[in-house]
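Hello again,

I reread your note about wanting to compare the complex against the isolated chains. To keep things tidy I'm splitting this into two emails, and this first one only covers the full assembly. Below are the input lines as submitted, including protein chains and any nucleic acid or small-molecule components. They are followed by the predicted structure of everything together. The single-chain runs will come separately.
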Amino acid sequence: MNVKLKDIADRTGFSINTVSRALREDSRISEATRVTIRRIANEMGYIPNVVAGSMRSNRSRTIGIISADSANPFFAEVIQGIEEKARKANYSILLINTEEQAANERDAIRLLLGRQVDGLVIAPVYNDEENLALYRELTIPYIFVGRYVDGMQDHSILHGDVEGQALAVDHLLRHGHRKILYIAGPKNISNTIDRLQGLTQAYHAHNLEIDESYILSSSGHMEDGYARVNQALNRGLSFTAVVCFNDLLAIGALKSLHENSLSVPDDVEVFGFDNLAMSQFMQPRLTTVEVPKNRLGQKAVEELVRHIEDPAYPYTTVNMKPRLILRESTLANHMDNNATH
Amino acid sequence: MNVKLKDIADRTGFSINTVSRALREDSRISEATRVTIRRIANEMGYIPNVVAGSMRSNRSRTIGIISADSANPFFAEVIQGIEEKARKANYSILLINTEEQAANERDAIRLLLGRQVDGLVIAPVYNDEENLALYRELTIPYIFVGRYVDGMQDHSILHGDVEGQALAVDHLLRHGHRKILYIAGPKNISNTIDRLQGLTQAYHAHNLEIDESYILSSSGHMEDGYARVNQALNRGLSFTAVVCFNDLLAIGALKSLHENSLSVPDDVEVFGFDNLAMSQFMQPRLTTVEVPKNRLGQKAVEELVRHIEDPAYPYTTVNMKPRLILRESTLANHMDNNATH
DNA sequence: CGTTCATGGATTAACGTTAACACAACATTT
DNA sequence: AAATGTTGTGTTAACGTTAATCCATGAACG
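Full-complex prediction:
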């Protein structure tokens, strides 16, 4: 059997409680006692039973992470940031993927509540009625990472989707593009909506109307980018630039353009979004919008932990600035090119 | 306060224990009682306190996952398989990254033991003395995923590193290559050792000796592949093929070759390993060795759960077959080209 | 018709920890 | 010197669940 507080108590002669307090660095234990107890505990190879402690103290030091798909490089990096920060703050993380399904998200929340997590970091499906109700009933802190749902934006850590997409499209419009193919993301997430809005905003700023036939839907994967561009070309749609909801789509788009003997950026310029690690290794290097993924995860945990440790700490939307990363997939002969690789 | 078994007991008139058993589908409860209790529990929005249950039953239905780096696309896919399978088997996963540091791995194991996990899935650092001792002392089941440590191979799920690398190198040797640059992986993992052995094996099968100056070390990231090939070219090393420990390196290598105006595959052929999702979107599409990453994760959980549920279930190494995926980064004019993308 | 057995449920005692309270010994204040 | 802290520790009671027992009822049996 594993070593318990009782074993240390028996061995040292102190009470279980004193042992517990000494190991927890409680201030009311004398230095001498603390040292003795810690030494013996080490000798005996004591590993605290966190489950038992959680139960009594009503704090599990565990955070639930509800991601859409941990294998998606975007989330993979966000989760990395979360894991790192959580580990350093002495929290453990329980990870669940929802595959963007509202019902899975509900199940995940309930499961994690049952496991007594101290807080939740969620990449939420957009405005699902049932889920909105569920969030409102939550009695533990929760942070939406990289996304939002209506009415609870103050729980979100965001990275300027509207502005970022507007910047990208504006960049192209300013350089004369008028036939821009836009490949949108999955329907049920706020990012898709915001980036579409950014697109519109940029057009309007140039007093232009969008041709809806240049907006294609997708689920945001590399295969979609490839297939959508193929389809557009097959339909005989003419365009001089492709703006993608994310880098994965853009990578697929690059592939299709290459196969169709269209040169990037000379024949067609391509814009991604997210700045994945792999994007600068594409041929050509992908121009994109920077999203601080790792930082996003870290920030989510930082905020969450503050809420956990101080229930009075108010919720406020955290906004991170988007930034264009101009590389080889767009033409670089202009002054606002401030990035290399 | 949350609904507890006691609340349901009060409401239905049954004892706490009967309620507990009814909800757990215990056979000794009548159908009528079970139905009533379940209905009321639902009405009241009961969510079982898993922590309390774990404590009493000594089973947490939690698995600890010790990965090197969850943001690495290889692990990201393995973890996805793990998460999916675990969720379906009604287990939750606690995720920790070690950054390939033996000391972090130890900390992770102890942390997870303290959290009373029912089993561990580990991507272990190779043969760290202290860790080997720690594994041997473990009283819960554990599976090494995609790697092994000496003396405990039977705890591993493997995917034929030696054979896979030998196949790849043999393929090139058979097609006349004699100057093959090999970029190896991180020193402290079994995969690096095995793949180097596969390399050697293939050379020996062709009665050739390896020129050690063609073997470069790396930590297995895209940047390394890029830098190593750059360095080799700068050193004036002549080679007709680059074989990489993994796809990430190969992607970096492709970049460097392109920048140095070397055509792939015409001037230099490039071989990766792992078959990452992104690899078929490279320009040119990357030839590689298939590793069933998702399946690897799933299998690890399958095995682990069997061990958890039946302590007598014997450990045996699970081997998965490697398979060449020949694409555009190698010349395809030969009969054994059986793959597209 | 008493005995045995199955069925359905209640009672009690844990699981290992921490919180709340109590209290002795000694120091400090007034 | 009494009153009031302060320091360090022990005692007791939870936390919410499940395991281990035990018990009542009625059916089945010879």
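For quick reference: The first helix of chain B runs from residue 5 to 12.

B.
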